[in-house]
Every structure is written in structure tokens, then in C-alpha cells.
Amino acid sequence: MITTDTIIVGSGFAGMGMAMKMREAGRTDFIIIEKADDVGGTWRDNTYPGAECDVQSHMYSFSYELNPEWSREYSAQPEIHAYMRSVADKHRLDDVIHYETEMTGATWDEHTLRWTVTTSKETYECRVLVSGIGGLHIPNIPELPGAETFDGPRFHSARWDHDVDLTGKRVAVVGTGASAIQFIPQIVGDVAQLDVYQRSAPWVVPKLNHDITGRKARLLTKVPGGTRAYRNALYWMNEATQLGFTGPAQGITKLVENKVADYIRKTVDDPAVAEKLIPDYRLGCKRVLKTDNYVPVYNRDNVELVTDGIREVTPTGIVTMEGDFRETDVIIYGTGFHVTDAFEWVHVTGKGGRDLSKTFDEHGIETYLGISVTHFPNFFLMLGPNTALGHNSVVFMIEQQTKWVLAMLDEMDERGAEAVEPTAQAQREFNDQLQEKVEKGVWSQGGCTSWYLDSQGKNRTIWPGFTFRYWWRTRKVESDHFAWQKAA
After folding, report:
1. What are the structural domains of the chain?
2. Cα separation of 57 and 60, whole Å?
3. Per the confidence metrics, is the pTM higher than 0.85?
């Protein structure tokens, strides 16, 4: 058994950020366990054609590791992964990462006040367990009748099979989420036929992506403080869009909806197809997607939008709900990830033998600040429930959570406490306030069903407001909101 004070699970932005700040704070007794053979998390795993971020590169990066050399406003997956690799190298994170070590379970011992963590390789013991696994790592593959009988390749966008040559193939894309709208324009020129199976249309807005060159590049690379100033401007520009989801600017959102609908109608030649591409719910109810090249693909002769739904898959194709058979060589799922139910894959057992996933099933996914959970001492979630964003960079949220966890560890040291958890009352009050705000937002009132919502129809994903409000809530530890326990 390997013993350490703190175990961080995952080496994406959350795990890397936690490790760097722990080391900076003088806390060196920690390790990272990582299921893969490199850092990067979702930016290591998602290698599908056209994969890129929909938050500006200068905002989607660590505030204390600015990169003046980003090549594009919204960088592609290889550049983001290279950035993360370079940061890991600079901070010598490989020294503390146990690669190809997947966590299989974690159990809290109420007598020793320690976590026992089982993995695919070793068993570990630690005082503090930090989950940095995020919410975008378990592909959501729909259960289509007959899919297992399909003779051709089928794969999820997050597990792209680069050995499959799509040239001249009849390809079915199931889903029109964030990944699909990126890879569809990249493969459409190679395939013989592309059938896009859409359950509900996404709201798409112009991305206006571009290379960073000329005066802008010189500002960022040559002017002292230029990169920092640009990042700050991006932060406040992104924050302003939140007004359209919960604030008084929701009327402006309607104007944006009208402009997007007009753009689709003017761009797509077939009026019937254009109408199918216009959502029937409010902008922001689902994730708003940014793209410059998705809508025009529906003018191509080899592309067909299918909205009938899928009845079954046969060895050679797909049958729609209307009974139409469409020959298919390859099926690609662009159906996103398990998000609100992702904890079913996290086998964490807290006080009294409580299973984390069953606790969430019974009471809904509830935490304190999206970080800590009643009955699960010394267990901290990075990007936990209701801390994802639809308008700004989650790296900002990660940095606030990192600071809060470190403040909590300092408070534990000062009190001589070996274990800490939020009180049931504090957690209840936090979630009551949170859901009151969420239920007034477009995610709940916008007339859609999305991956933001759990099986009970509650938004357990998005932070319902400005990110600076989250900064305010996490700027210090409210000690009276916690139960502190000293060693016996």
C-alpha cells in the first residue's frame, strides 16, 4: 500500500491546477493518479477532426501560466494539449503522476480518518482525496436497438477511430451536439453520403475564429501586460453574456435568436431543411454552440438531415421511425457525455457505508459549493455539480476551487482537525438558494430537455450566475458551515 497525504485523481486542467497550487503552498506530500499515459484529460482524449475549444484561448488557460503565443482566437485540440503538456513539463508534474493507474474505488475509514483508494495497479491510503475527473470523460452512447448487429465500424467522437478511412463511405452521424458540429464540416468532403440524425436542433452562433496575427499578435507578445489585459477584457465580455440567461437582458437574447434564425434561412437553400435547423426552445436552454462552417454543409448534395428518429440499426444500415431504410457503412456518435449521472462510475463510499452515486440518486446531486459533500469527509470535487458554465471559462472556476481547497486544508491545520465535512444544514441551504436561482433561468424555463438536467428535471450542471459571484462565495472558508473532527 502506498501512503500519502493527498491524492488527486486526474491530470486535466483541474488535477494539474490543484497540484501546481499545492506545491506552491508548500504541500508536497501528494500524488496524482491518472488512468492514461499523459496529462490533458478531455483535451488528450478528444482527437476527432476539427476538435477545438469554444472559449477563447487566452481565457481558457491558467491565469498564472499565460501563453502569449496562442495561434488562434479559439485553439484546436492539438495546441491546447501541447499547452497543457508544456505546463506539466515546466512544473515537473510527471514527478508526482502515477500514469496508467485508474481509480476503481475509494472508501472512508471512520476509525483511522483516512481514505483507502483502490486502482488498476496499486492500493493507496490518504487523508485527503481530490477528484479532478470532470464531467466530460464518459461517452454517452445511445442504446439503439440492433446496434450490436451493425457490420461496419461504429464509434463515439471522444474515441475517434483514426484507422477508419471515411473516404467514399456512407456515414451516419447520430447527434448534433458540440462535437458533431465541429467534425461534420471536416469529414463532409471525404464521404460519399452523410446522414445527420438530429433529435433537436442546437442554437449555433458565429464563432468568428481567426489566426492571431499583426497588431494583435504584437500586443500580446511584445507589450508588457498585453496578454493579461486582453484576458481581462475577454473575461468581462464573456461575463456580460450571462445577463441574457438570468438577467434583465433576456430580451436581447430574443433578438439574437431572430438573427440566428434569419442567418439559417438565408444560408440554407432548402426552406424545409432550414426550419428543421432552427430550435424551438430559448437560446441558452441547451449549450449554445459556436461555429463558422456547420450550417452551410446542408447545401451539399451528399448531406441529408434526418429528424425522424431511429427505430433500429441493421447489419447494413439504419431504419428511421417512419420506416425508411438508409444504407450505412459507418456510424459515428456525436451524443456527448454522461454528466449528471457520471457519479455512477465513481465508486466512492463515505461515512456509514454511504455510496456517493446512491446518495445522489436519492436526494439529487447536491454538494456544498460544488466542492464538498456531507458524509464524505476530506473529499473534494473539482468542477462538481452546478459549477460548469455556459458563458465563460471553467478554468476560472477551477482556480477558485483550488484556492478554496487550500484554504480548507490550512483551516484544518490551524484547528488540528483530521477530518471535515459540510453540515447537512449548510449543504441544504446552499442548494435551496442555488435551485431557486436555477429555476428562474433559461436552463429551466427555456422549453428544452438537455444534459444540464438530471432525471428529476433539475439543473445540476450549470452555475446560475456570474462567475465573480462564485469567486465571492469561495474566497474564504465559512468555518461554521462545517463539522470538524480531531483524531481520537
Report:
1. 2-138+338-485 (3.50.50.60), 147-208+243-332 (3.50.50.60)
2. 5
3. yes
